[in-house]
Write a structure and sequence with these properties.
Shape: globular
Largest sheet: 2 strands, antiparallel
CATH architecture of the largest domain: Up-down Bundle
Strand content: under 5%
CATH topology of the largest domain: Four Helix Bundle (Hemerythrin (Met), subunit A)
CATH superfamily of the largest domain: GntR ligand-binding domain-like
Radius of gyration: 22 Å
Structural class: mainly alpha
Number of domains: 2
């Protein structure tokens, strides 16, 4: 008899390590992709969208700016097709408005737009915080506290950038931990409007919201939905008051 052959075993599929960070932290931490980072049309369009959205949020493209697709595509190192897709997405979000059939501009967020968006946030974000109080992890809370204290102690430049980065992180994590994707998407949409208005119209004085945010984190840490709801409702009232006082 011949010697038996061992059957070759199929290689085990590679297991990609899962990130412990919630999707909200990953989404808000994403930076625009570098030039030529990918040749996948969908990825290029998404990178162009994120870069263009960042320019609007960061006041590089203030309200009323005319969108020049060719110039923007060249500056980002992409073709006109992904840029056209990105522009279409932003128009669908209401952040770009059509002046003519072929001309788009960045939407001017008016005071009325801002107050209406805050009214919607006041209705839904306290509910998101109540839901998040039951599901947010101790690790996430510890990370948020660390980032908040770093912001409170920051004494250098880039205070505005750091303030908004933390604000995105906190509100994005709460929206994610609500467990309701429709609620999360609505909060993100309303925060885009309020953030654009505040960054372009209301000057940042000191470190607004630090104490509000501490109270929100304490409420979430308690695990009691009613405390999360009340802390977020109070925070949005304070946001409205500070914005109107700053005009």
């Amino acid at each position: 008899m011949g010697r038996g052959r061992k059957e070759s075993q199929p290689a085990a599929p590679a297991v990609r390590p899962r990130s412990s960070a919630p999707a909200a932290l990953i989404r808000f931490a994403e930076a625009p992709a570098p030039h030529g980072a990918s040749k996948d049309p969908e990825k290029l369009a998404d990178a162009a969208y994120r870069t263009l959205l960042g320019k609007i949020l960061n006041r590089e493209l203030p309200g009323g700016s005319v969108i020049q697709e060719r110039k923007l595509a060249l500056s980002m190192g992409v073709s006109r097709t992904p840029m056209r897709d990105a522009v279409g997405r932003l128009e669908g979000l209401g952040l770009l408005v059509r002046l003519t059939d072929r001309l788009l501009a960045v939407r001017v967020i008016t005071l009325q737009d801002y107050l209406h968006s805050l009214d919607v946030r006041a209705l839904i974000e306290p509910h998101a915080a109540a839901l998040a109080a039951k599901s947010i992890s101790s690790a996430e809370l510890a990370h948020l506290r660390h980032e908040l204290e770093a912001l409170a102690e920051h004494a250098g430049d880039r205070l505005d950038e750091l303030h908004w980065r933390f604000d995105d992180l906190l509100h994005g994590t709460i929206a994610e931990r609500s467990g309701n994707p429709i609620l999360r998407e609505t909060i993100e949409a309303m925060r885009r409007y309020t953030k654009i208005f505040e960054r372009q119209t209301v000057p940042l004085h000191g470190r607004p919201g630090i104490e509000d945010h501490r109270r929100i984190l304490d409420a979430l840490a308690s695990g009691r939905p009613e405390k999360g709801r009340d802390a977020m409702a109070d925070h949005i009232r304070q946001v409205r008051r500070r914005a109107l006082d700053g005009l």
